[in-house]
Amino acid sequence: MERHAAEHLLRLLAKAGNACSTDRSAAFSALRQASALLWQLAPDSPPIRPLDLEKQLSVPIEAWLPESVRGGYEGPLLSSHFTTQTCSEMLFEMDIRELWEETQAIVRKVRDSCRLRKGGQQLYRNFRLFLIQHAVLKPVEAQAALVPLGLSMTDIYSEIPARLIQDGQVFLCPSCGWPMEALKEEVHCDSSWCKHSKSVFLRRNGHLINRHTSARNAGVPAEGLWMLQGALWKFTLLPGRLELALAEALTSKGFAVELWPDFDRADLRVVIGPQTFEIDAKVWRSAHSLAERIKLLRPATPLWIVVPDYQKSHVRFLRESCPPGVEVFIQSQCVKELVKRADPF
Protein backbone atom coordinates (compact mmCIF):
# COMPACT_ATOMS: atom_id res chain seq x y z
CA MET A 1 0.00 0.00 0.00
CA GLU A 2 1.40 3.37 -0.95
CA ARG A 3 2.35 5.56 1.99
CA HIS A 4 0.19 8.53 1.01
CA ALA A 5 -2.88 6.29 0.73
CA ALA A 6 -2.12 4.77 4.12
CA GLU A 7 -1.78 8.23 5.66
CA HIS A 8 -5.08 9.30 4.11
CA LEU A 9 -6.75 6.24 5.62
CA LEU A 10 -5.26 6.94 9.07
CA ARG A 11 -6.38 10.55 8.85
CA LEU A 12 -9.95 9.48 8.07
CA LEU A 13 -9.99 6.94 10.90
CA ALA A 14 -8.64 9.48 13.38
CA LYS A 15 -11.19 12.08 12.30
CA ALA A 16 -13.96 9.51 12.66
CA GLY A 17 -12.77 8.53 16.13
CA ASN A 18 -12.57 12.14 17.21
CA ALA A 19 -16.08 12.90 15.95
CA CYS A 20 -17.91 9.77 17.09
CA SER A 21 -19.03 11.21 20.43
CA THR A 22 -19.55 14.81 19.29
CA ASP A 23 -20.66 14.92 15.64
CA ARG A 24 -22.25 11.75 14.32
CA SER A 25 -22.71 13.20 10.83
CA ALA A 26 -19.02 14.05 10.48
CA ALA A 27 -18.04 10.69 11.97
CA PHE A 28 -20.24 8.76 9.52
CA SER A 29 -18.87 10.73 6.58
CA ALA A 30 -15.28 9.92 7.57
CA LEU A 31 -16.16 6.26 8.22
CA ARG A 32 -17.84 5.95 4.83
CA GLN A 33 -14.77 7.38 3.07
CA ALA A 34 -12.45 5.16 5.09
CA SER A 35 -14.55 2.10 4.28
CA ALA A 36 -14.42 2.87 0.56
CA LEU A 37 -10.66 3.43 0.70
CA LEU A 38 -10.09 0.16 2.56
CA TRP A 39 -12.03 -1.75 -0.10
CA GLN A 40 -10.25 0.10 -2.91
CA LEU A 41 -6.86 -0.79 -1.45
CA ALA A 42 -7.78 -4.39 -0.66
CA PRO A 43 -10.40 -5.35 -3.30
CA ASP A 44 -10.04 -9.08 -2.53
CA SER A 45 -11.38 -8.51 0.98
CA PRO A 46 -15.12 -8.01 1.57
CA PRO A 47 -16.12 -4.37 2.05
CA ILE A 48 -16.74 -3.28 5.62
CA ARG A 49 -19.80 -1.21 6.46
CA PRO A 50 -19.22 2.17 8.14
CA LEU A 51 -21.00 1.09 11.34
CA ASP A 52 -18.89 -2.06 11.53
CA LEU A 53 -15.79 0.03 10.95
CA GLU A 54 -16.84 2.22 13.86
CA LYS A 55 -16.81 -0.87 16.10
CA GLN A 56 -13.30 -1.64 14.87
CA LEU A 57 -12.11 1.71 16.23
CA SER A 58 -12.40 0.22 19.74
CA VAL A 59 -10.04 -2.62 18.77
CA PRO A 60 -6.26 -1.97 18.80
CA ILE A 61 -5.38 -1.00 15.24
CA GLU A 62 -2.40 -3.37 15.23
CA ALA A 63 -4.97 -6.20 15.35
CA TRP A 64 -6.59 -5.22 12.05
CA LEU A 65 -4.20 -2.96 10.14
CA PRO A 66 -0.75 -4.08 8.95
CA GLU A 67 2.35 -2.19 10.11
CA SER A 68 2.82 -0.84 6.57
CA VAL A 69 -0.48 0.99 6.97
CA ARG A 70 -0.55 2.11 10.61
CA GLY A 71 2.97 3.55 10.52
CA GLY A 72 3.93 2.70 14.10
CA TYR A 73 0.68 3.72 15.77
CA GLU A 74 -0.74 1.23 18.27
CA GLY A 75 -3.84 0.93 20.41
CA PRO A 76 -7.55 1.58 19.88
CA LEU A 77 -8.87 4.90 18.61
CA LEU A 78 -11.92 4.75 20.88
CA SER A 79 -12.31 3.56 24.47
CA SER A 80 -15.75 3.60 26.11
CA HIS A 81 -16.82 5.96 23.29
CA PHE A 82 -14.04 8.45 24.17
CA THR A 83 -11.17 9.43 21.88
CA THR A 84 -7.94 7.71 22.95
CA GLN A 85 -4.43 9.09 23.21
CA THR A 86 -3.49 7.25 20.01
CA CYS A 87 -6.35 8.90 18.12
CA SER A 88 -5.46 12.37 19.42
CA GLU A 89 -1.79 12.04 18.48
CA MET A 90 -2.72 10.72 15.04
CA LEU A 91 -4.86 13.82 14.49
CA PHE A 92 -1.95 16.09 15.38
CA GLU A 93 0.66 14.21 13.38
CA MET A 94 -1.47 13.43 10.33
CA ASP A 95 -2.39 17.11 9.98
CA ILE A 96 1.23 18.14 10.52
CA ARG A 97 1.46 20.56 7.60
CA GLU A 98 -1.50 22.71 8.61
CA LEU A 99 -0.68 22.59 12.34
CA TRP A 100 3.02 23.19 11.76
CA GLU A 101 2.30 26.23 9.61
CA GLU A 102 -0.11 27.50 12.27
CA THR A 103 2.56 27.15 14.95
CA GLN A 104 5.34 28.58 12.84
CA ALA A 105 3.28 31.65 11.89
CA ILE A 106 3.04 32.59 15.56
CA VAL A 107 6.67 31.77 16.32
CA ARG A 108 7.83 33.65 13.21
CA LYS A 109 5.87 36.73 14.27
CA VAL A 110 7.58 36.71 17.67
CA ARG A 111 10.99 35.95 16.18
CA ASP A 112 10.77 38.82 13.70
CA SER A 113 9.70 41.19 16.45
CA CYS A 114 12.54 40.11 18.72
CA ARG A 115 15.15 40.53 15.98
CA LEU A 116 14.43 44.25 15.90
CA ARG A 117 14.95 44.75 19.62
CA LYS A 118 17.95 45.14 21.85
CA GLY A 119 18.35 41.90 23.77
CA GLY A 120 15.98 40.24 21.35
CA GLN A 121 17.57 36.81 21.59
CA GLN A 122 16.93 36.66 25.33
CA LEU A 123 13.43 38.03 24.82
CA TYR A 124 12.72 35.25 22.34
CA ARG A 125 14.19 32.67 24.71
CA ASN A 126 11.96 33.96 27.51
CA PHE A 127 8.92 33.61 25.23
CA ARG A 128 9.73 29.96 24.50
CA LEU A 129 10.28 29.25 28.19
CA PHE A 130 6.99 30.93 29.02
CA LEU A 131 5.04 28.63 26.68
CA ILE A 132 6.78 25.52 28.00
CA GLN A 133 6.07 26.47 31.60
CA HIS A 134 2.48 27.72 31.19
CA ALA A 135 0.21 25.08 29.68
CA VAL A 136 -2.71 26.73 31.47
CA LEU A 137 -3.11 30.16 33.04
CA LYS A 138 -5.42 33.10 33.57
CA PRO A 139 -5.33 35.94 31.02
CA VAL A 140 -3.91 38.41 33.53
CA GLU A 141 -0.88 36.13 33.96
CA ALA A 142 -0.13 36.25 30.23
CA GLN A 143 -0.25 39.99 29.67
CA ALA A 144 3.32 40.76 30.70
CA ALA A 145 4.68 38.07 28.36
CA LEU A 146 2.41 38.50 25.34
CA VAL A 147 1.52 42.18 25.03
CA PRO A 148 5.14 43.43 24.50
CA LEU A 149 5.40 40.94 21.62
CA GLY A 150 2.23 42.16 19.93
CA LEU A 151 0.31 38.99 20.77
CA SER A 152 -3.20 38.64 22.09
CA MET A 153 -4.44 35.91 24.40
CA THR A 154 -6.34 34.24 21.56
CA ASP A 155 -3.15 33.96 19.47
CA ILE A 156 -1.69 31.50 21.98
CA TYR A 157 -4.41 30.21 24.30
CA SER A 158 -8.03 29.10 24.10
CA GLU A 159 -10.77 28.66 26.67
CA ILE A 160 -10.92 25.23 28.27
CA PRO A 161 -13.84 23.28 26.73
CA ALA A 162 -16.63 22.04 28.98
CA ARG A 163 -15.77 18.38 28.37
CA LEU A 164 -12.48 18.87 30.26
CA ILE A 165 -14.18 20.40 33.30
CA GLN A 166 -15.74 18.24 36.01
CA ASP A 167 -17.61 19.79 38.93
CA GLY A 168 -15.84 23.09 38.34
CA GLN A 169 -12.40 21.46 38.44
CA VAL A 170 -9.83 20.82 35.73
CA PHE A 171 -7.29 18.05 36.19
CA LEU A 172 -3.83 18.90 34.90
CA CYS A 173 -1.23 16.46 33.64
CA PRO A 174 1.68 16.56 36.10
CA SER A 175 4.21 16.11 33.28
CA CYS A 176 3.15 18.82 30.82
CA GLY A 177 0.46 20.80 32.67
CA TRP A 178 -2.22 20.40 29.96
CA PRO A 179 -5.80 19.48 31.00
CA MET A 180 -6.71 15.79 31.04
CA GLU A 181 -10.10 14.37 30.07
CA ALA A 182 -11.12 13.24 33.56
CA LEU A 183 -14.28 11.34 32.57
CA LYS A 184 -12.30 8.52 30.98
CA GLU A 185 -11.62 5.34 32.94
CA GLU A 186 -7.88 5.76 32.35
CA VAL A 187 -7.04 9.44 32.61
CA HIS A 188 -4.05 11.09 30.96
CA CYS A 189 -3.35 13.91 28.53
CA ASP A 190 -3.01 13.36 24.79
CA SER A 191 0.76 12.77 24.82
CA SER A 192 2.60 9.44 24.93
CA TRP A 193 5.56 11.40 26.39
CA CYS A 194 3.52 12.07 29.53
CA LYS A 195 2.16 8.54 29.66
CA HIS A 196 5.72 7.19 29.63
CA SER A 197 6.50 9.70 32.39
CA LYS A 198 3.97 7.83 34.56
CA SER A 199 1.32 10.55 34.36
CA VAL A 200 -1.57 8.09 34.15
CA PHE A 201 -4.51 8.09 36.56
CA LEU A 202 -7.35 5.70 37.37
CA ARG A 203 -10.75 6.60 38.78
CA ARG A 204 -11.11 5.19 42.31
CA ASN A 205 -14.10 6.10 44.51
CA GLY A 206 -14.56 9.39 42.69
CA HIS A 207 -10.87 10.35 42.89
CA LEU A 208 -8.05 10.30 40.34
CA ILE A 209 -5.23 8.09 41.64
CA ASN A 210 -1.88 7.78 39.87
CA ARG A 211 -1.50 4.25 38.55
CA HIS A 212 2.22 4.11 39.40
CA THR A 213 2.63 6.22 42.55
CA SER A 214 -0.88 6.15 44.08
CA ALA A 215 -0.70 9.95 44.37
CA ARG A 216 -4.05 11.73 44.13
CA ASN A 217 -4.73 14.45 41.54
CA ALA A 218 -7.16 16.81 43.27
CA GLY A 219 -7.60 19.15 40.31
CA VAL A 220 -7.66 22.95 40.31
CA PRO A 221 -10.55 25.41 39.94
CA ALA A 222 -11.30 25.82 36.23
CA GLU A 223 -12.85 29.27 36.44
CA GLY A 224 -10.91 31.80 34.39
CA LEU A 225 -8.29 29.33 33.17
CA TRP A 226 -7.24 29.12 29.52
CA MET A 227 -5.18 26.36 27.88
CA LEU A 228 -2.33 26.52 25.38
CA GLN A 229 -3.59 25.88 21.85
CA GLY A 230 -3.14 22.32 20.63
CA ALA A 231 -0.55 22.98 17.93
CA LEU A 232 1.67 24.96 20.31
CA TRP A 233 1.28 22.28 22.98
CA LYS A 234 2.25 19.51 20.54
CA PHE A 235 5.11 21.21 18.70
CA THR A 236 6.45 23.69 21.26
CA LEU A 237 5.64 22.68 24.83
CA LEU A 238 6.17 18.91 24.59
CA PRO A 239 9.52 18.99 22.76
CA GLY A 240 10.39 21.94 25.00
CA ARG A 241 10.26 19.65 28.02
CA LEU A 242 12.76 17.36 26.32
CA GLU A 243 14.89 20.35 25.30
CA LEU A 244 15.11 21.61 28.87
CA ALA A 245 15.91 18.12 30.18
CA LEU A 246 18.73 17.81 27.64
CA ALA A 247 20.07 21.26 28.51
CA GLU A 248 20.08 20.40 32.21
CA ALA A 249 21.82 17.06 31.64
CA LEU A 250 24.50 18.58 29.38
CA THR A 251 25.08 21.55 31.68
CA SER A 252 25.63 19.14 34.58
CA LYS A 253 28.40 17.53 32.48
CA GLY A 254 30.15 20.87 32.07
CA PHE A 255 28.93 21.80 28.58
CA ALA A 256 27.96 25.36 27.69
CA VAL A 257 24.49 24.95 26.18
CA GLU A 258 22.62 27.61 24.22
CA LEU A 259 18.86 27.20 23.93
CA TRP A 260 17.16 28.24 20.66
CA PRO A 261 20.28 29.95 19.25
CA ASP A 262 20.03 32.52 16.47
CA PHE A 263 16.29 32.85 17.01
CA ASP A 264 15.52 29.14 16.81
CA ARG A 265 18.01 27.94 14.22
CA ALA A 266 18.06 24.80 16.40
CA ASP A 267 16.72 23.78 19.80
CA LEU A 268 20.15 23.52 21.43
CA ARG A 269 23.69 24.37 20.40
CA VAL A 270 26.81 22.83 21.93
CA VAL A 271 30.37 23.78 20.93
CA ILE A 272 33.11 21.18 21.44
CA GLY A 273 36.55 22.40 20.42
CA PRO A 274 36.37 23.47 16.77
CA GLN A 275 33.04 21.72 16.12
CA THR A 276 29.51 22.98 16.66
CA PHE A 277 26.64 20.56 17.23
CA GLU A 278 23.02 21.60 16.82
CA ILE A 279 20.28 19.51 18.40
CA ASP A 280 16.57 19.28 17.64
CA ALA A 281 14.33 17.44 20.12
CA LYS A 282 11.33 15.58 18.69
CA VAL A 283 8.40 14.09 20.60
CA TRP A 284 6.33 12.24 17.99
CA ARG A 285 4.19 9.13 18.35
CA SER A 286 4.78 7.85 14.81
CA ALA A 287 8.30 7.08 13.65
CA HIS A 288 7.04 7.08 10.06
CA SER A 289 5.67 10.63 10.30
CA LEU A 290 8.88 11.85 11.92
CA ALA A 291 10.98 10.10 9.27
CA GLU A 292 9.17 12.03 6.55
CA ARG A 293 10.10 15.29 8.30
CA ILE A 294 13.73 14.21 8.72
CA LYS A 295 14.07 13.46 4.99
CA LEU A 296 13.42 17.14 4.24
CA LEU A 297 16.29 18.45 6.40
CA ARG A 298 19.32 20.07 4.76
CA PRO A 299 21.50 21.29 7.65
CA ALA A 300 24.57 23.46 7.16
CA THR A 301 25.93 22.33 10.55
CA PRO A 302 25.92 18.79 11.99
CA LEU A 303 22.39 18.25 13.30
CA TRP A 304 21.35 15.69 15.87
CA ILE A 305 17.72 14.65 16.13
CA VAL A 306 16.98 13.51 19.68
CA VAL A 307 13.95 11.43 20.63
CA PRO A 308 12.85 10.22 24.09
CA ASP A 309 14.54 7.15 25.55
CA TYR A 310 11.32 5.13 25.33
CA GLN A 311 11.60 5.33 21.52
CA LYS A 312 14.92 3.51 21.38
CA SER A 313 13.41 0.92 19.03
CA HIS A 314 12.69 3.70 16.47
CA VAL A 315 16.28 4.89 16.12
CA ARG A 316 17.47 2.42 13.49
CA PHE A 317 14.47 3.14 11.27
CA LEU A 318 14.86 6.92 11.68
CA ARG A 319 18.57 6.76 10.85
CA GLU A 320 17.70 5.18 7.51
CA SER A 321 15.87 8.41 6.61
CA CYS A 322 18.70 10.77 7.56
CA PRO A 323 20.20 13.00 4.84
CA PRO A 324 23.91 13.91 5.07
CA GLY A 325 24.82 15.76 8.24
CA VAL A 326 21.89 14.43 10.29
CA GLU A 327 22.15 11.83 13.06
CA VAL A 328 19.51 10.40 15.39
CA PHE A 329 19.94 9.54 19.08
CA ILE A 330 17.77 8.86 22.08
CA GLN A 331 18.11 11.34 24.94
CA SER A 332 20.59 9.38 27.06
CA GLN A 333 22.68 8.41 24.02
CA CYS A 334 22.97 12.05 23.00
CA VAL A 335 24.48 13.02 26.35
CA LYS A 336 26.89 10.06 26.38
CA GLU A 337 27.99 10.67 22.79
CA LEU A 338 28.74 14.34 23.39
CA VAL A 339 30.74 13.46 26.51
CA LYS A 340 32.73 10.96 24.43
CA ARG A 341 33.43 13.48 21.67
CA ALA A 342 34.47 16.12 24.20
CA ASP A 343 37.10 13.84 25.74
CA PRO A 344 40.09 15.08 23.63
CA PHE A 345 39.24 18.69 24.48
From TrEMBL:
* InterPro entries in UniProt: pPIWI_RE_REase (IPR040828)
Q: Which residues form the REase associating with pPIWI RE domain?
A: 240-338
Q: What is this protein called?
A: REase associating with pPIWI RE domain-containing protein
